[in-house]
Amino acid sequence: MTLSPEERRAFLDEPLVATLAVAREGERAPLAVPVWFWQEDNGDLLFFTEADSLKSRLVEAAGRFSLLVQRTEPTYRYVSAEGPVVSATPTTPDESYTDAARYLAPDKVDAYVERTGATGDPTAGLVTYRMRPEHWFSADLGSL
């Protein structure tokens, strides 16, 4: 059944990898790739990537994207959010740390942050995209 807003929020706080989907022009299907992401208190969803990547170019061109997060255990559950990009800013060390701390062992986080080169400077080559969800789809098939 459909998840409540509170259930969606709790699910998105789990360290699960999202699938980013973003439109392509022409006859190509949308790009769909895995990304690490995090959710802010106001519900915005964020991820960062290299500014010159295909992901970045497509997100900039489309101005919006979708994230799909799913799991298979203990029940199949998913949340999909779609909305506009409300900001695209140089990735800061704090954002890199927030991202890494969700997915990596504590003893690996500092090295990851250093390796990303996130400085908040546009010349560092990383951009953080913030999406404000407008449309949601969700379900927990174990609750049927």
Explained architecture:
The chain is an alpha+beta fold. The protein has one domain: Electron Transport, Fmn-binding Protein, Chain A (Pnp Oxidase, Chain A), CATH 2.30.110.10. It has four helices and eight strands; from the N terminus they run αββββαββααββ. The longest helix has 11 residues, at 93-103. The relative contact order is 0.24.
What's this model, at a glance?
This protein is of the alpha+beta class and 144 residues long. It has helices at 5-12, 54-62, 93-103, 106-116; strands at residues 18-22, 31-35, 38-39, 45-50, 64-71, 77-90, 126-131, 135-140. Strands 1, 2, 3, 4, 5, 6, 7 and 8 form an eight-stranded antiparallel β-sheet that branches.
What portion of residues is helical? Answer: 25-40%
Please give the CATH architecture.
Roll
Give the C-alpha Rg: 15 Å
Low-confidence stretches: none
CATH-assigned fold name: Pnp Oxidase, Chain A
CATH class: Mainly Beta
